[in-house]
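Final report, Chapter 2: Outcomes

The project's central promise was a pipeline that accepts a single protein chain and returns its three-dimensional structure in a standardized token representation, suitable for archiving and comparison. That pipeline is now operational. To close this chapter, we reproduce one record exactly as it appears in the project archive, with the input sequence first and the structure output second.
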Amino acid sequence: MEKSKSKKRRILVSAILTGALAMTGCAGAGSAVSQAPGETGQVAKKTKLTMWAWDDSFNVKAAKLAKDYYEKEHPDVEIEVVSRERNEIVGKLDYGLAAQAYENLPDIVLVEDYEIQEFFLKYEDEFAELSDVLDYSEFMDYKTSLVSREGRCYGIPFDSGAAVMFYRLDLIEKAGYKEEDMEDLTWERFIEIGKAVREKTGAYLLTVEPKDLGIIRIMLQSAGKWYVGPNGTDVDIEGNQVLKDAICIYKKFLDEGVACTAVGWDEFVSAFQSGKVASVVSGCWIASTIQESEEQAGCWRVARIPQMGSCPESVNASNIGGSSWYLLKNKGNVEEAKEFMAGTFGENKEFLNELVGEINLVSTRKDAGSFPNYQTPNEYFGNEVILRTFAKVAEEVPGVNYGLNTYDAEEQLSSELQSIINGSDVDEALHRVQIKVVSIIGDAAGHPLKISQIS
């Protein structure tokens, strides 16, 4: 599941990681060139690039495919792909940039869209601008805005986090429902179906984690709302009716017994791979992880997410996660890194089409729907052309400004969530969260605290 730490905790993590960084750092600007024999027997210089990413079945796999693709035509370049937990990447990147310890940092790093604006704010001179190697008009506007700051583009847009509902058709049918019953749902209807599934099969319909509010994020963005207002700085928690409704739905998941809790990514994955839960409401990127359970092939189907029946603005489309690639300007190999990334993730449609087939990538290129592999039925998901659904949802995701502190807001909200589940007043709890988050954002972003927000 997707989690981050508050600014104070990141400082603590950075301190803990200091010793580890010194021991496990990868090649930096001074050691990025290795030696390889040339055709004439002379020693030729070989550029080494290092990439950091998380999720071995999706992001890391994509990076390794890019490495293999590029190295075949560029024997003078060696690419090392390093798999780390996302939180570890955030901590090491934060510390390394603060200390300008470039020898301990990668040339290319994957950063989640929720977190990049805070890195831009803190380290605006550390990321390479890429307008000279990419035509950003070819990417979806909402994604381009996420990789930009003050009119300059820094990231190579990677995956869409288009949110969909994966469900076990075999378990749904045992509960007396059909595929058409899973289309265009509201969350209220979803809960009704979940109660029947639980009664007839013993399986839950959903997995939630109190410290990871991804399902809340999905509901919020389906209605074009977030924890901050459109300017990305004004905290919008107290009095946010969409957020209140989302929390009430979340509480009902547990009250009605249709959701089980999981702690951490491994428990989350185990829940659906073991058959403990009958659906996964998440980003389309989870498809590759679902497919790891070969014995469940043919059992899964894909539908749009439920919408919030209590909220007229809510639609059956949203986003969860999504990330982009960034090049560290002061690492020492930025020009070589630009050539590699432009030749794979940036402009190479042949390679991107390969990723569609290998990891079910939903590219954020506007022309991605024309890729041949978007038209290929997926045998695992009952021969559905699932990429069509993913792409259609991606086109309809309501845009929001994530601001700087999504995970800080959720850390404060999750601390109040248990009291709400146990019967505390939602409005009072959101008032307390508002006060805490305003103080964090005021400190982190340098914006003056508004008396009206903290009174």
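Archive annotation: The CA atoms of residues 73 and 240 lie 53 Å apart.
This record, like all others produced under the grant, will remain available to the consortium after the project formally closes.
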